Structures are given as structure tokens and as C-alpha cells.
Amino acid sequence: MEPVEHILLLGDSIIDNGRYVPEGQPCVREQLEAVIKAHGLPWLVTQAARDGAVMENVYMSQFYDSPRDATVIVLSAGGNDGLCYFRDLQRRPWATLTSFLSTFRAGYEKMLRKIRKTFPGVPVVLCTIYQAQLGSDLGWFTDTVASLGVRLLNWIIRDIAAQQCLPLLDLWFIFDRREDFANAIEPGVPGGHKLVRNLMCLLKAGDHYGPSKHVIYADANYDPSFVERIPLVTHFKAQREVFGASVIQ
Questions:
Q1: What is the pLDDT of residue 236?
Q2: Dihedral, 15, 21, 25, 26 alpha carbons, nearest 10
Q3: Is 34 helix (H, G, I), strand (E, B) or coil?
Q4: Is residue 67 a contact partner of residue 11, using CB atoms and an 8 Å limit?
Q5: Can you spell out the DSSP letters for 131-175?
Q6: R_g of the chain computed on alpha carbons
Q7: Long-range contacts of the stretch 231-235 (C-beta < 8 A, 24+)
Q8: What was the pLDDT predicted at 143?
Q9: What is the pLDDT at residue 83?
Q10: Domains in the chain, please, with CATH?
């Protein structure tokens, strides 16, 4: 008999993407609940993740909306911390990047300590940060440094996952197509589908159970039955303006 899971979703708009998907289309939480129902599983899902959240928000506010009977936590945080530095990055790229990287690891590890203290013994699944679909009008130098910054943040997240033996959804590889995004920086229905697909594979395999496991899930494929239901890319194009930058066409 499979265990009854209570999945707690913490973090930012990578999970709380309801306002960005086309009207009538499912957000990440709704897709997860639909797949759980389709599998006939008696699992519960609670979303405490909030659009715009930074790492500090996870333990300063999201815990208040979180059930204490959670059996597994999915955490996607850190991307908005990077976006907070975006404007400074354009003005002082190297100084800003160096300063931010020196504090990011400490902030991420503090967040994990707070999670473990509040939810002792509950396994945590980490997510990396995907590459935003920003346009070339940022300037090649800033665009290159921004891309390098995301890669370095992901190196930190992957390193923490390896050191602490935590399972990882590597969104950098999972979100590999323009269609995966609702706009330049938010996940759309296809990206949410792939996130949920990888998460369900991880949970069904039990790779979050027992002794801590460092496994990486990074399947960038869609379920074949899902492909025909992917919303048109025109929704992505219609929402392309973010920070005054057009997405790659």
C-alpha cells in the first residue's frame, strides 16, 4: 500500500503561477492535484508558495499557511532574490554579482535550517532556477552577466543539495523551450506540466524516503498525451514585456 502523502509547496511564482497562465488553464498546483487524482492516489496538496516571495518570506510568512502534518516539502526559492539585484546588475555587474553570491548561500542554508526546525524529519525536494527568456535589448554584457549569475546560483543550490543529500528538480534543464514560459520570467502551463511530471516521478519512486537521497530529476520531455493540449505560444508573446525587455522571438 502506497503511503498517503501531504505535499507542501513552498517558495515563489515558479509554483504560484496561477495569475500568469491563460484563463481557464491550470496552474502548477492544479496540475499536480489533477495528476494525483488521475493516479487514484489519496494524496493532499497545500500551496503556501506566493508569487514574488524571496527566501526570507518562506520562513517569515509562508510557515503560517503551512500544515504541520506535511510528509514532503517542495521548495522553489531564490530566483526573486536574484531579480532584486537585477537593476544594480545593469549598473555595476561584477560588483553586484560578487556581493550577491557571497550572501546567497548563507541565506539559502538559513532557509533550509528554518524548514527543518519547523518540520523535523520531513524530506525536502529542492528546485534550481531556470533561465529567464529575456531579450537582447538589455545589452549583451548585462544579458551575459545575468545568465552567468543564474548559473552560479544554481551551482550553489546543486552543491547544497549534494552536500545535504537532498533530491533535486533541476529546472534549468527541465525548462528548455520557449513554450514552457507564460512570459519572460514566469512558468506557463507546459513548464508547469514538466515540473509536475518530474515531481510525480520522484515521489512515486520514493526517492524522498528513508535515508537522505541526492537524486536529480531533469526530464525536459512532455507527456505525449499532453502535447496537443499545450496553449498557443501567442499567449507567451502577448505577455512578453518584463522589465522593459522583450523576450527572444
A1: 44
A2: 0
A3: helix
A4: no
A5: PP---GGG-HHHHHHHHHHHHHHHHHHHHHHHHTT--EE-HHHH-
A6: 18
A7: 231/21, 231/22, 231/25, 231/188, 231/189, 231/190, 233/178, 233/179, 235/22, 235/182, 235/188
A8: 63
A9: 80
A10: 6-238 (3.40.50.1110)
- State the pLDDT at residue 235: 46
Which residues are CB-neighbours of 45 under 8 A, at least 6 positions away?
Answer: 6, 7, 9, 29, 32, 33, 36
Q: CA 142 to CA 89: how far, in whole Å?
A: 7
Cell numbers placing 67? 500544515
> What is the distance between the alpha carbons of residues 170 and 61, in angstroms, rounded to a whole number?
26
pLDDT at 22: 86
Residue 207: predicted pLDDT: 84
Residues linked to residue 7 through DSSP beta bridges, in sequence order: 45, 72
Angle between helices 140-163 and 93-118 (to 10 degrees): 30
Cα dihedral sign, 183-127-26-63? negative
Residue 140: φ, ψ to 5°: -65, -35
Q: What is the pTM of this model?
A: 0.87
Residues in a beta bridge with 187: 181
Cell readout for 231 is: 496553449
- Dihedral angle of Cα 206, 116, 15, 55, to the nearest 10 degrees: -150
Phi and psi of 215, rounded to 5°? -120, 150
242 three-class SS:
strand
Which backbone phi and psi does 44 adopt, to 5 degrees? -115, 150
Alpha helices (H) along 16-60: 28-38, 55-60
Which residues of the chain fall short of a pLDDT of 70? 1-3, 86-97, 134-146, 210-212, 227-249
